[in-house]
Amino acid sequence: MLKVSSLVSCALAVSIAMWGCQPESGLPVPQDGPLKAAKKGPVNEKVNVAHLDENGQYKVISVNANAVATHLSHSDFLATNFETFYIRNNNSTITAPWDNDIVLSENPEGDGFTARTPRGGQKVGYGTSALDGIQINKLETVNWERVSGMSNGGLVSYLNIWVTDGNNYAVIASENNYLGTNFATRQEWKVFEYSGTNLNWLFDGGTGARDGSQYLTLDGTRVKLSQLSNRITIMSPQAPYPGYVGTGAPRGGYGFNLIWGDTQANFTAGTIPNQLKNLTYTVNGETYRAINF
Predict the structure, then answer these.
(1) Residue partners of 100: CB distance under 8 A and separation at least 6
(2) What is the pTM for the complete model shown?
(3) 80, 108, 123 — which closes off a domain?
(4) Per-residue model confidence (pLDDT) at position 16
(5) Which residue among 44, 65, 80 closes a domain?
């Protein structure tokens, strides 16, 4: 991952969704999307773009932010990098050795992953730090295509997104089928892995809480992502994790995660591993595609 020398540059690099730089405490969080923030940079920050070369192969290159539009006009795309990681074994342990019947691998292209958790309790993830430092209310969509695996009941690789206000942490989760939906208006967001019962810190006013079905609410109504405060950014706590974090939480160090597996047995049916490809997300009008680099 790219290292940036100055504090100002690092803060900007956090805002570029295809980089994995971790922001240092006290640095400002950009209010724009990653590409817009890069264009405002004092030295015109570099942006990772997947460029279609003369051999018909995509190669990730770094270009000036003001050159991105030209690249996007002829089949190139904004690039982001994900990594697979293990979360929990069948016996609830959260460290290696991992159960040898778990299937987990990244697609060769880096555009998705394959997973199978044949026993209850097993969980794995596919995560990125590229969104760290981005306001969660700027996240608009997440989409991918299913290659194989379970399709009953709309079961999908669900989202676990670590968020923080700089002091508190929580996981905002989408367990229902979110494909093709607008996150700004969608009202199906659960909340986990937080301390105490006070969730007011997620909002600029009102009473934040969790209802009986684990959905995040504001003044008794299930929320949209657009209702969360601009102070709330995507960011994972780092090891050692707080004591209130359960065994099922993503501990890969990534703020944004797709998860397969659960405490229950609802992800264990079938013998064909679940595989997805062509993973994309959109932040403030800017769409990024997963690819290895």
Answers:
(1) none
(2) 0.85
(3) 80
(4) 37
(5) 80
